[in-house]
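The aim of this short unit is practical: by the end, you should be able to scan a pair of folded records and say something sensible about each. We start with the first protein, listed as its amino acid sequence and then its structure tokens.
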Amino acid sequence: MADDLIITPDEAPNSVAERAEALLVKLGISELAYSQVLEDAVAHATAARAAAPPVGQRWLPVGPRNVCGRVMALAQDPINPLLHYAGMAHGGLWRSNDGGDTWDVLGGPEHQFPVGCIAIPEQAPTKLYVGTGAQLENRVSGRGLFEVTVAGPRSAAVFRQLCGPPPSAMPPAQTNARPETRGQALRYGRIRMDPDDAQRFWVASQTGLWRCELHTGVPVFTLDFPPASIADGSTPPPLASVTVVGNQAGYATDLVVVHDPRDTDTLGKNGPPRYLMLVVAIDGPAGGAPGSTVGGLYRARYDRKGSGSMRWEKRLGVPVDIPDMVGTGTVSTAPHVPADGLDTMTLTPAAGGTRLRSMFRPGDLVEAPIGGAQRTVTRVLQDASGDLAMDVRSFPGAPLAGVGYRRVGGPVPFGTLRVTACERAPRRLYAIAHQQASLPTPVYRSDDAGDSWTIAAEYLGGGQGQAG
């Protein structure tokens, strides 16, 4: 049956993306320069057109000038459930007034930039905050952060740029040093509003976690992460101090902002909750080599009393190590085939009818027999009648035969983290550690605001998705 088969491509993981990146490097084209290219394209698109083609020119280009690409962000009006907004990878901001049946694009040619995230304040749903740029490194950068005013469901949108992209040669660690570059980023991953203040929001970006205050009408940006210190003594991953072409880490990739469920103090006798809880996701490569685990989830408490203050409490225990999974039964492997460097291993469980597919995924490390050689699973071929056949990196020497096997657990290398909170029970958090290509992707759950975590599920083929 179809659900008994797991087949991964024979081609190396991410080979298409890697070939594309190699071509850009060879041509000397950096994804960091996309923002400037986009500015040039906007200038061309908005330039005045000749009334007639120049002498000797038979054709005049009229468009389309942009291709929308993937849907990167979605937002629903908090009052009108039929009003939706969508952000495209290359095609700007779109609106639907009928629950998604029809769509129209907002803004002019200069607003058809890549959209990474959208937020709508509940108290002022005629305002939208839009972060531009793809959320992952090696993808297109954007044109900064925008406030979009839409007076009514069918009104024209008015765009105001709150901050532009930083100079492509500026390292992320330097953006906070100059007032004019604070808040700037090549890509924004998530915007979260203050639940009770439409003039305050936080945005996770490639240059850190920024807080934006709009109470005077002029945006004021404060860098809240990385902080100078964390209460539990952990060291926050530093922002990159150099500009790396082709591997500019996403850094802050996701964010949760909720009323702190651990405290009931209010602002005044009948005011809103005093404290907010923030959880920011920092990607794995941040501050280290690709595949490292120096990132993770970090939790803070924001005190809204007076001028407001932020206290970073701890690094949360995500990702959680994958546990060992031990099986009993017969292990056998086919003779080594030099052409592909793979052996085919068959596991026959001791108890007839036991399903094994949930035990192994491509990318897992299998040890067979227990105490014997360890090899990486490259492809799970079938799961029929309780037997599990899979390709593994070649075992040395003669084919194996033995009783007992296990999936070897351990740390989970990850690229991008996603995190969200349950709206009705904000103590419950979920996090996903996206890995490369078709490796198993763990889904974590916490029921105590991030103090402890369990692996709720694993699924195959998560990759480093760009939509949260």
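Turning to the second protein, read its sequence before its tokens, just as you did above.
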Amino acid sequence: MGYKIFQRAQQSILMQSASVFAVILLLAVAVIGFSKPTVVHAAAAAPCSTQGTWACSFLKKSGVYAMNNPADVPTVATNGYTLVVGDGFRSPTDTYTQALIDNHMQLLDSFYEDTLYNTECPYINGARVCTPLNSTQVSSLINAVEAHTQLVKNSPAVGGYYLLDDYPGNIRDGLAWVNYAIRQVDTVKPTVCAFERTLTPSPSTGANGHYSFDTVLTNFFSSWCNSVALYSYSPTYNSPPPSNATIDWSMSTSLPTAITKLQNAGFNFSQETLIGIPQTFQFNPRYNDSGALEYRINPTRAQIASQMQGFCKNGATTIVAFAWNDGSTSPLPDGVHELFNNFDMRQGFRDGLTNCKNTNYWQAVH
């Protein structure tokens, strides 16, 4: 479809309510010289009780992040997981794709996140630096997204399009174009955006800071986030965590506050789905992306179940754990624990899932 979309796109989906943002956007369009993407709403899926368009996208499902080895698929499926967030779709005949199909699993395809981030926020000196897209970048991005969506839209191995994860900066313009390109090809499969709401320790001395939830919500807009995934992990430490650091794994106050802010930004439980992402990992320590040592507090079996129950209690209808095996390495032989190598974590996830299914949190969901 290519560059023609600039002439046929008429209406912006980049405006939410802030007039300042609208003025900036109009000025940018005038300077760069291409039209704004049209609002493209995905078609309604099959009715689900009395809920809206995307409220039924992910119901009573469980999944994992970072399961990229075809040999792991049968094991993961045996543990009851049906969704996976991992590397982008490879090819219709790839062994990984076939393994997903054979084991009745579906991929939330991260091609879209990877492509957008690498286009708008490339790494410069080890850190992502975001700059507004120019017309050439937009054209290239749209062509890539349309081509990939054409490849995957009918694949039973792909259950949705994963657009957003760790906050790289304000990329609302890029998200709008990616969503526009997807909906030129497929109006059925949902998009997924993930946002971080860090678990806050008490006391927090020694914990590395993360972006505030208000900041990460900059990139939320319901038109391009049909499903929202919230992930809450213990803080990162540069040295072993203090023995008096405590975590509210149930998220008794942090999660309701985050959901209220999300709703104030436009999220609607009757129209979109909420996915909870509990912490199923411990780093004691691991090497981070820059090669430095990083520590994370270890959640126990009971704490994993508690966190999952917190998500379900607050409206999450699907749980996707991070992580199965994200490839982290440690200077110690026993420094990294994740679902693939830790029985208690797998049992904690199983306990939490049972609690969600057997309580009125999920029993009322149809």
